[in-house]
Amino acid sequence: ILNVEQSPQSLHVQEGDSTNFTCSFPSSNFYALHWYRWETAKSPEALFVMTLNGDEKKKGRISATLNTKEGYSYLYIKGSQPEDSATYLCAFGNEKLTFGTGTRLTIIP
Amino acid sequence: GAGVSQSPRYKVAKRGQDVALRCDPISGHVSLFWYQQALGQGPEFLTYFQNEAQLDKSGLPSDRFFAERPEGSVSTLKIQRTQQEDSAVYLCASSLVLLAGYEQYFGPGTRLTVT
């Protein structure tokens, strides 16, 4: 049974501050690590797919790093804005994905 | 272009009723996945298809759950004799190819409530 853990479960951040959270996954038999952003009543939005150890990806103010040897990925948000409020999910696997329970981020204006 | 769509968005069923949940994937996407998200949990894998072939159904919780994709496009997840524990959000995703490292694009989900 694959275990994907995310921390913290929830986070409140002042607008303009930067923040980061963690996804840990099994370090053996690595295939790919996905990050999704999920706003209430909307579709989960794919942020990044990471496949190589040491990968760093960036999309605007959001970036992610990957360490497959130790089994973790970090997601960073720089200069948080209210529209960043969402649940951030990571998922591990090849075709079928195993998800963590998510980090619920709330930006305080 | 159009994303993945699911219908209905919300479904209330009485215990014992049968339900059918529909997924329209992105046109041309070979792979289609179903996930179930219970309250407070992350999505959990149910089953996936490559074209019309169901390659893995190991995540289906019981034989009351059945999924099909007869023409390799639209898929239907059917739940027979619904139980309260079936209450969840059912997510569908599609992917261009069936390979690790390819993005899965999700629909908005169907929230099923069994009373």
Low confidence ranges of chain A: none
- How many helical stretches of chain A? 0
Q: What best-fitting shape of chain A do the alpha-carbon axes yield?
A: globular
Estimate what percentage of residues of chain A fall within beta strands.
over 45%
The total count of strands of chain B amounts to 11
Strand content of chain B: over 45%
- Helix content range of the residues of chain B, please? under 10%
Q: How would a crystallographer describe the biggest sheet of chain A?
A: 6 strands, mixed
Q: How far is the first residue's CA from the last residue's CA of chain B?
A: 37 Å
Give a topology summary.
The complex is a heterodimer of chains A (109) and B (115).
Chain A: E1 5-7, E2 10-14, E3 19-24, E4 33-38, E5 45-50, E6 56-59, E7 62-67, E8 72-77, E9 86-93, E10 97-99, E11 103-108
Parallel strand pairs in A: 2-11
Antiparallel strand pairs in A: 1-3, 3-8, 4-5, 4-9, 6-7, 7-8, 9-10, 9-11
Chain B: E1 5-7, E2 10-13, E3 19-24, E4 31-37, E5 44-50, E6 53-56, E7 65-68, E8 75-79, E9 88-95, E10 105-106, E11 110-114
Parallel strand pairs in B: 2-11
Antiparallel strand pairs in B: 1-3, 3-8, 4-5, 4-9, 5-6, 7-8, 9-10, 9-11
3D architecture notes:
With 109 residues, chain A is mainly β. Chain A is built from no helices and eleven strands. In chain A, the strands form two sheets. In chain A, strands 2, 4, 5, 9, 10 and 11 form a six-stranded mixed β-sheet that branches. In chain A, strands 1-3-8-7-6 form a five-stranded antiparallel β-sheet, with no helix packed on it. The radius of gyration of chain A is 13 Å and the shape is globular. The model of chain A has no long low-confidence stretch (mean pLDDT 94). Chain B is mainly beta and 115 residues long. Helix content of chain B is 0%, strand content 48%. Chain B is built from no helices and eleven strands. In chain B, strands 2, 4, 5, 6, 9, 10 and 11 form a seven-stranded mixed β-sheet that branches. A four-stranded antiparallel β-sheet of chain B has the order 1-3-8-7, with no helix packed on it. The mean pLDDT of chain B is 95.
